[in-house]
Amino acid sequence: MRLSLGCSSLLLQFALLLVPTASIASGYVTGKVIDSKSKAPLPGANVQIMGTVRGASTDRNGNFTIEKVPPGTYSIRASMIGYRSVTLKNILVRDKQETKVFFELRETPIEFDPIVVLAGKTKQRLDQAAVSISVVSAKEIKRRNPTNLIEALETVPGINFIGNQINIRGSTGYTYGAGNKVLLLLDGVPVYASDTGEFNWDMLPPLDIKRIEVLKGAGSTLWGASALGGVVNVITKSPSPEGKLLFSCTAGKYDKPYYDEWRWTDPNRLHYVRTDISYSKQFGRLGMRISAGRFMSTGYTQLGDFKKYNLTGKFDYRFPDNIKWTGYAAYSFIYRGFFIQWKGQNDPYEVDEANLDNYAKTNQLSVYSKLAIPVSSRFAINVRASFVRTLMGNQFGEAAGFNPALGQGMEFQVDWLPHSGHTVTIGMQYQHDAGSTKYFGDHRGFFIGPYLQDEWKIRENLRVTAGFRYDRYQLIGGPKEDLFSPRIGINWQPWSTTSLRASAGSGFRAATIVERYLELAIMNFKIKANPGLKAESSWAYDLGFRHYVTENWNVDVSLFDNEYWELIEAHLDLIRGQIQFRNIPRARIRGIEATTNISMPIRILGLNMIPSLQASVTAMDHKDLKWNEPLTYRPKLLATIKALFRIGSAQIEVDYRYASKIDKVKIYPINDRVPMKFLDVRASYDFWHLTVQLGVNNLLQYNYAPMESNLMPMRTFTVGLQGEF
Amino acid sequence: MNCLGKRMTKTKIILFLLVTVVIGAWLECNIDHGIAPLPGKLGVDVIFINSRIPENTEGIYLFVAPKFPPHAINELYLSPNSLPFWQIDRSAGEFARDTIYTEIALPFGHYEAIGLWWYNTETESNLADVFTLKIAPNFLPASIDITPEEPYVRTELWANLTRVERDAFIEGTIHFDGPFPPNTLATAIGAYFRKPQKDVEYLIYLLSMDFSINENPYHYKLPVPSRYGAIEYLAVFWLSERSGLDDFRTIGFYEDPENPGQPGKIKIVPNGTVKGYDIYAHWP
Predict the structure, then answer these.
(1) Residue-number span of the structural domain to which A483 is assigned
(2) Whether the Cβ atoms of residue B186 and residue B155 lie closer than 8 Å to each other
């Protein structure tokens, strides 16, 4: 009898539950975490015993218990999103005795140094990481009121989107949806369609997101395939200790086109509505969060209409001895039109009549199961299994021809703290991808890769990280490749207000099934297969510093140099009108990124006011080194300004996003190209358990096409209502 | 100390307002609305001089070339839709004329050529499917200018689709003097009703082209329109990586057996296939 990879992994997780955890001399730590101002308990705060794998979250009353702590003296840290972390030092834990600690956390207007997991697969303070990372908090997501993950990410420094494809410091460019050079993780588990490598940015409702971490630069040493230009980790909220109902309703009304001659329908009918509801509760040892959402839009163009539904469930179960199982399932159904290109620059919201039936429906199911076993205070085992099933149908009038694309993954990871100062992460990852349609046949491939990383705290203010990974990629019945991904990094904090970081890390990505085998005719272009595509690889060098000018003002500057080998890009054969994915032997993207966050809480006429500002600039030089010319679909300058003014329960936010004109495109170089200049304005008011929001996106009615013949939305008026009960 | 604190607070507020005003002013001064409709327009009366529309016609598009010959096919402005060729009464008799008016939006500028491009339902389209060009009295493509003073220009094109009615075939083998160079983008065979003398004539006299040559030796079967009676020049071209449509290099041609070194003339007959027209090509 053959067992699928998912079943095997679940059996392994079950077997590991039987592993006895160490029973040596130990005490336990209990305590409470409260808000320093209101003195109210803080449920969901994280408490971690530093130098061990022991930690806990607070319950609805802000209380926590950490069991099986070996006797000794520890530093214990409490952290929570929106609050400044507090570390209590020299806490003595005695054998068989309770040690009580008490934390008062102070609310911060800006999330300065949150805890992240992207840097080392273990929890770490952002300012202690050796690599460049940005974080989007739940608070920020709530303020932006996004309708999907793209809107939650588009103001992150160094990120821009070309169509649905994410670019971190210019990593991806635009590859017509096939093959992202960024890895998307859901709670640390890869979630990409196994045939195209595409992300489903609608897979979960924004109100389920706890935070999003973005690693800039290659990250394959720990995260494996596809982490060529960066990693995005979407961390979902855990079940709430107390029953919590969240809902969000957002509606948008598209304004009429800026130019009357661009009108193609009655503009009053163009709108969208997104509704989500989520409920979570802890029932003893079992926690659950269930969410459902519906997103409907008429679109602002012909074929821009869609209906999207999603259903997600997150469950966890806490076994004795702090063993925790987490399961997550996200199902989404999407029915949408495919706007490939405009009819003409004078009819930019219309398509050629011959393409009006370009509709497709997509079903996607993403599931993962994780088991975390803290065997002792210095040794923990984590096992993950994942499954992503994507089924697309009815594309371009075809009634059949697609079969489900199946991605199955499994990972075994050990966190080991052999002695003070070292955090060793050892693991093995396996990923199997399969896809089959009449457009590219039936193909399967797999990766298997062991990895090892050690973070060594040489001194309290000096950390060195070194790691290595080997991957074997085998396309069944096709080529195989061996890939090595080393990494080294250093973080030094010469003063408590300053940290310096330097890292060199490598990444790789094998061509997706679509990039290798797709044969399809779209309008006047023919996509040709290229079975001989090699895996692309990169080395990312990053040198940065972070400095606190004052308690509420920080500056982060990073110099980066990303070197690429065999970069996979869509190649347009201008003679025959053919598109084929090909390797660019050498490419380079290097530049500088500077970000500053400033917040100035003030009190005028008895009102608390918090003006804050985040500004970032990313300047890049990108080059195809074979032909010594710019890479396609990449701007050279990105800038964002986010200004926020909070008065009591009301707040006004202004976002400005700029991207310089793209130097080079592939399909229509004669089309007008302009820089991106988007200004969004929002106002919101919190009362009772509700937040009401009003906003205008693209206030200046700026018409921008990130890729040829595709205009971004015109001015859009938005209204939102969010509730938390 | 309190007084100093208040002063600091005021300074912060003023600083914040100042920054906001400066950003607002900067934005206001730089307001533009990005991409705008194209200001110029070319109107074309396409006069079909007969009603013979090939059955395998997928579309007929008007194109305008800022540069001719273009470097690449994506440097042409193409009409967003096909001309409604299905409106032409095919039963009206071979010599019945019909006119279709079409327009294309353009930026202001100088355009070196206007023409019609035929797309068929069976094979990939290529340069040989340019079946009509507006020709000036000097027999070269006629140019036009779209300017702010004259944003709308109207002209006419005479269309005859019998040029793409490729009912006859030439068959033969191409022998190369070595393996394909690694920097090969494409190798093609083209048939001309007259031997081209200058660059632009390589497009004007072209009747058929096939880019699928990929092995040595290569057996070809090239469809050609029989109405020309003969092909005066049958040549093999090579394009290196990143070269454009204006960079074709002739690497061989069918030679007159009676007069080696000179192009041979190939007689063709309606619906017939002529065989044995071998070509020896030499890589550059």
Answers:
(1) 115-724
(2) no
**A258–chain B Cβ distance below 8 A for any pair:** yes
Helix (H, G, I), strand (E, B) or coil at A188: coil
In one-letter notation, the amino acid at residue A163 is G
Answer whether residue A23 shows pLDDT above 90.
no
Task: Please tell me the total count of domains within chain A.
Answer: 2
Chain B residue numbers with beta carbons less than 8 Å from the beta carbon of A674 are 32, 34-35
Best mutation target among B74, B118, B237 (most A Cβ atoms within 10 Å) is: B74
pLDDT (0 to 100) of residue A621? 96
Is B13 touching A (CB cutoff 8 A)?
Answer: yes
Retrieve residue B150's tokens.
Answer: 């004259």
CA distance B8 to chain A (A): 10
pLDDT at residue A523 in the model: 62
* Cis amide leading into B225 (omega within 30): no
Nearest Cβ partner for B13 among A602, A613, A643 = A602
Q: Is the Cβ pair A524, B125 closer than 8 Å?
A: yes
Q: Do A700 and B27 touch (CB under 8 A)?
A: yes
Predicted confidence (pLDDT) per residue in A701-714, tens digit: 999 999 888 999 99
pLDDT at A47 > cutoff 60: yes
Interface pTM, i.e. ipTM: 0.83
Q: What CATH number is attached to the domain comprising A525?
A: 2.40.170.20
What stretches of A82-200 show up as alpha helix (H) in DSSP? 138-144, 149-153
Boundary residue ending a domain (A77, A107, A137):
A107
Q: What is the pLDDT of residues A165-224, one digit of tens each?
A: 999 999 888 887 777 899 999 999 988 887 877 888 888 889 899 889 999 988 888 888
Nearest by Cα to A655 from B27, B31, B14, B30: B27
Determine if residue A282 is left, alpha or beta; phi over 0 gives left, psi from -120 to 50 gives alpha, anything else beta: beta
Within a domain: A2:
no
Write down the CATH number for the domain with range B40-163.
2.60.40
**What CATH code would you report for B166-281?**
2.60.40
Does residue A5 form part of some domain? Answer: no
- The pTM (predicted TM-score) of the whole model is 0.86
- Mean pLDDT over A91-100 rounds to 88
Q: Are both B40-163 and B166-281 of the same fold?
A: yes
Give the tens place of pLDDT for each residue, B137-195: 888 889 999 999 999 999 999 988 888 889 899 999 999 999 999 889 889 999 999 99
CA A485 from chain center: how many Å? 21
Paired tokens of A49: 């015993």
Would an 8 Å CB–CB cutoff place B31 in contact with chain A? yes
What is d(CA A497, CA A549) in angstroms, rounded to the nearest whole number? 8
Which chain B residues are Cβ-neighbours of A346 within 8 angstroms?
37-38, 105
The domain segmentation of chain B, as residue ranges, is 40-163, 166-281
Are residues A236 and A173 located together in one domain of the fold? Answer: yes
Interface check B36 vs A, CB under 8 A: yes
A15-44: average pLDDT: 75
Interchain proximity A641–B23, CB inside 8 Å: yes
> Is A2's pLDDT higher than 60?
no
B127 to chain A: closest CA residue: A575
A678 touches chain B (CB under 8 A): no
Q: Is B74 on the interface with A (CB under 8 A)?
A: yes
Single residue among A107, A141, A167 that ends a domain in this structure: A107
Q: Which residue, among A256, A528, A574, would best test binding to B if mutated, counting the most B CBs under 10 Å from its CB?
A: A574
Place of tokens 């959402």: A293
Task: Judge whether A683 and A693 are in contact, CB under 8 Å.
Answer: yes
- Residue A428: inside a domain, yes or no? yes
Q: Does B62 touch chain A (CB under 8 A)?
A: no
The residues, ordered by sequence, that sit 6+ positions from B5 with a Cβ below 8 Å of its Cβ are none
In a 10 Å sphere around its CB, with 0-12 CB exposed, 13-18 middle and 19+ buried, how is residue B86 labelled?
exposed
CB A312 within 8 A of CB A290: yes
